[in-house]
């Protein structure tokens, strides 16, 4: 099974082809936000795919529309909840907005990271 590595933490997990980057992130406890619950309605799962981009499922119009609302969109941008893993390993960088959303969704973790000195945790 392909592996998905989440940066900057370097957390890595195997993912079933056909599952989404967001599902892999949740299973790995990586800090990818998902304010809408993974139904392509918020853009908090915005990530940069640094390796394996072309192996992902095609981007649909709905995803492009939501990505238009995201911050700092790049050529490597995808929504984690809409990007299905193919047969190649992936390296995924979690965007700042996505990490912030994750901390907003997990306030107890924000406290731990504050203590650890993270620049993202408020
Ligand atoms: S979790 Fe909301 S668009 Fe992906």
> So, the CATH homologous superfamily?
Beta-grasp domain
Assembly level: single chain
Under CATH, the topology can be stated as: Ubiquitin-like (UB roll)
Question: What's the arrangement of strands in the largest beta sheet?
Answer: 2-1-5-3-4
Helix and strand element order: EEHEHEEHH
Main beta sheet: strand number and arrangement? Answer: 5 strands, mixed
Number of helices: 4
Taken as a percent bin, the fraction of beta residues is: 15-25%
Radius of gyration: 13 Å
Would you write up a description of this structure?
It contains 4 helices and 5 strands, in the order ββαβαββαα. The protein is of the alpha+beta class and 122 residues long. The protein has one domain: Ubiquitin-like (UB roll) (Roll), CATH 3.10.20.30. It has a 5-stranded mixed β-sheet with strand order 2-1-5-3-4. Strand 1 (3-7) and strand 2 (11-14) form a beta hairpin. The model has no long low-confidence stretch (mean pLDDT 93). FE2/S2 (inorganic) cluster is lined by residues 34-36, 38, 40-45, 66, 79, 81. FE2/S2 (inorganic) cluster binds at residues 34-36, 38, 40-45, 66, 79, 81.
């Amino acid at each position: 099974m392909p592996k998905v590595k989440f940066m900057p933490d370097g957390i890595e997990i195997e993912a079933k082809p056909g599952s989404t980057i967001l599902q892999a992130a949740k299973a790995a406890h990586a800090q990818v936000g998902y304010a809408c619950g993974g139904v392509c309605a918020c853009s908090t799962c915005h990530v940069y795919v640094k390796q394996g981009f072309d192996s992902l499922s095609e981007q649909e119009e709905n995803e492009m529309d939501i990505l238009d609302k995201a911050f700092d969109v790049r050529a490597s941008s995808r929504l984690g909840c809409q990007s299905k893993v193919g047969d190649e390993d992936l390296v995924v960088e979690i965007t700042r907005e996505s990490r912030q959303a994750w901390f907003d969704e997990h306030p107890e973790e924000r406290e731990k990271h504050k203590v650890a000195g993270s620049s993202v945790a408020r």
